[in-house]
Amino acid sequence: MIETCRQLGATPILITTPYLSEYNEAVRQNDPEFYADFYSVIGEPVKKTGVKYYDYSSDERYSNDYSLFFDNDHLNRKGARIFTDNILREILGVNVQP
After folding, report:
1. Looking at the domain assignment, is residue 71 inside a domain?
2. Of 28, 41, 54, 95, whose CA is between 20 and 30 Å from 16?
3. What are the two backbone dihedrals, phi and then psi, of residue 92, each rounded to the nearest 5 degrees?
4. pLDDT at 1
5. What was the pLDDT predicted at 98?
6. Could you count the other beta carbons within 10 Å of the beta carbon of residue 14?
7. How would you label 33-47 residue by residue, b for 16+ Cβ within 10 Å and e otherwise?
8. Other CB atoms closer than 10 Å to residue 98's CB: what's the count?
9. Domain that holds residue 47
10. Is residue 54 in a domain?
């Protein structure tokens, strides 16, 4: 997929979206090696292809704000809008009006 995006002239990026802090804690308690394993797996295509990876899974702007989530690991409409605006600003440099 990364190569297909590049062939089409697109710049692929990988993003892990935000999760509530309770979700992250539950994952750590149920599978202490999960995050180490995950970052090892995601690190392979990042290293191999040079694609940029952005991890928002524990970003404190989101992880403790219940009003942004539909459930523990899915943003609701408000959260998705705020997250998308932040991605546009932070990664793409697009000036989004608050």
Report:
1. no
2. 95
3. -95, -10
4. 92
5. 64
6. 14
7. eeeeeeeeeeeeeee
8. 5
9. 2-64
10. yes
Distance CA 71, CA 43 (A): 27
What is the distance between the alpha carbons of residues 86 and 98, in angstroms, rounded to a whole number? 10
- Contact criterion met (CB below 8 Å) for 31 and 38: no
In a domain, 8, yes or no: yes
| Amino acid letter for position 89 | R
Q: Which residues face 69 on adjacent strands?
A: 75
Rg of the chain (C-alpha set): 15
Contact (Cβ atoms closer than 8 angstroms) between residue 89 and residue 95: yes
Low-confidence residues in the chain, pLDDT < 50: none
Amino acid residing at 80: A
What's the CA gap between 49 and 19, in Å, rounded?
Answer: 26
Tokens of residue 9, six digits:
């002239």
Return d(Cα 33, Cα 28) in angstroms, integer.
7
Residue 82 belongs to some domain of the structure: no
Type of residue found at 43: G
pLDDT value for 71: 92
